[in-house]
Give the backbone structure.
Amino acid sequence: MVYNQYVVFKIEQQEFAVDINRVKTIERVTAITRVPGAKGFVKGVINLRGDVIPVIDIKERLGMGKCEYDDETRIIIVRVEEMEVGMIVDAASEVIKIQVEDIDKNLDYSRSIEDSLVEGVGKVGERIIVILDVEKVLKIA
Amino acid sequence: MDLNQFMEIFLEESSEHLESLNNSLLELEKTPGDRKLVDEIFRVSHTLKGMAGTMGFNKMAELTHEMENMLDGIRRSNLTVDTAVIDLLFECLDGLQVYVNSIANEGIEGGLDTTALVNRIKKMLNRKEDSEPTEKNCETEKLKLNSHELTVLEKALEQGISGYQIEVKIDPGCMLKAARAFILFNTLEKYGEVIKSEPSVEDIEDEKFKDTIRVVIISKYDSERIAKDVMGISEILDVAIQRIDYETENRENAGEDIKNNDENDYKASAVKKNITGKTVRVDIDRLDNLMNLVSELIIIKTRLEENGSIKENANTNEALEYLERITTNLHDAVMKVRMVPIERVFNRFPRMVRDLSKELGKEINLFMYGEETEVDRTVIDEIGDPLIHLMRNAIDHGIEQAGERVKLQKAKEGKVVLRAYHDGNTVVIEVEDDGKGIDVEGVLRKAVDNGLYTEQQLEKFSSEDIIQLIFEPGFSTAKTISDLSGRGVGLDVVKTKIESLGGLVEVDSKKGIGSKFVIRLPLTLAIIQALLIGLGNENYAIPLNSIKEIVTIKESSVKSVQNKEVVLLRGELLPLVRLDKELGAERETENQQEMTVVVVRKGEKLAGIVVDRLIGQQEIVIKSLGKYLSGIRCIAGATILGDGRVSLILDTNSLF
């Protein structure tokens, strides 16, 4: 059986996931310094153990409103090539395995989000998990 | 055998060798008769050939071999050093450089075809050889004797004992070359005294030589007898023996030789020291890592200092002060390690000037000063391209054609000066030419033609202001577009680059006398002194080197000129920048009677930045915002404060 591992997080009630190979760490929210002139969904930069890392609000990036920060809010640090960026999510819940044949790359499922950012939709039992294409999410337009 | 582990060394050393070849060739062009230089060039290219051969880069080895043939021709006076020869040699170097680059990038030599080049070399050699049949190849290269050896030889000759130089070729298939050499020396010592051998006796014992041994001996016997006996040793292929005439080693030469040999000896010992580990080649990533760690240390030190409770205890306070001193020293030490002489950048210019002046038919002398000035490696990496631009401009636009210069009663040869020196915490690099200077009228017309400004606007400009226009995007005054410059992409790129490095570029030009570009750069780009300011609930850092002063101004004294806010500061108009508006931030108290204004400078211009409060001066470590946030205006980078929060560094140059 061929499967991939994904980090699952929630935005409102919808479950999303990113490839675990893209994820460096998951952090609690720390002081975010606003960067003037950056795009709206770029919330600013944080100090991640001595490195300055930009953070984005993934909910806003997907056009689903803004994250409300609470105890559950997390920053998932993802890495694309040499670039590291934090994604603010409502809650990061778990790491799951999804079988490759259970991932549907036919993107008809996604209605409320930008199709181009979705890699596919995975099914685990009754749960439906939207798998994001990290590279496209972080693409500098 | 896995050669990959040697690849890095190979690449590094070949680049070094090519650079030194370039320089030596330039020297040779100036002093064509210099035999020592030819020898030096020959030696270096021979090393290069050997290295390339060992690594299996046959094309490189072949090309160097052809080069060696040419050099050999020069050495044996079959070939006179003229421009054609030098040009051809330079072409060889260029070819080799292409190979090296290709090896660096792809691991293979690439498809460059040098057959044509090789044929031209062959033709040149043949031409010379036809006209002037050479002596037989067996003529041995003369060994250089140092002063002591010369004295011995001199004494011997006085006593009627002859000196011989013997060149012995050992069979390459010989298994125990050192042993053969030992027998050779034993044999020779029957006849006389060996006063010099090349390679040295130590190297021979260690088998650090190829197949040829050259020795100088003094002996009462005649050469034939010695030669016969040496040939008698098995596995000796060839013996060439030559009598040394004292006349040929005449004193004058010897005097020079002594000096030269002393130098060589010195060089040789320097090389030896390298081997025993006086210097270490370190991968730059490791240095960067070390630098990062030191940066972290400085951040945590600042954090400790900010912790008030620690300061109450006299003991810890003392320890903290000590820590402060140590981190400062450590920082300095690491910075020093990262410092490299600016020579690394300057070195490419003699060749560039030569090529350009030939191409443009101008006669140009390049003078370089302060090559030893040390700057941080990050600066070295970035400064090359802007400097090339400025040098090309000076040569292409600045210096006039020789004929024109004579008419203007200037020296026929144009002069370009490249100068570097330290000035406080900055390094200054100047590019100066004695050419025609910047044509203010021309700049003015061009600015209007290109639609940058209207004539009315320019009326108010002083001629200095007008000269500054050459740094504007889309500007070029050259009438013809040459290959080198004049596409209007030059100077604004230079300016942007220098400013992105936290530096400044200024120009000073007098018509008919020449132009001078002055670049000022911070010594390091990693750690700077900055002033922290507060704006609403946000903090920003302003680099200290761009701050002129800090003043308090009454809100009521702000005037409006052409919809811009200005204040009078000691009789001068100072434009104000409302930082909160520029950055979209909130100010904390709107109805303040007095404003705190940080006066920053950009070249000659000043502006006042209105801030809420001053927090203090601090040593900050510059961190990049990264690729994801590239192209953000007004922000030069970020730094981490003592409390762990990130503060952004203002790029004051982009504020006005």
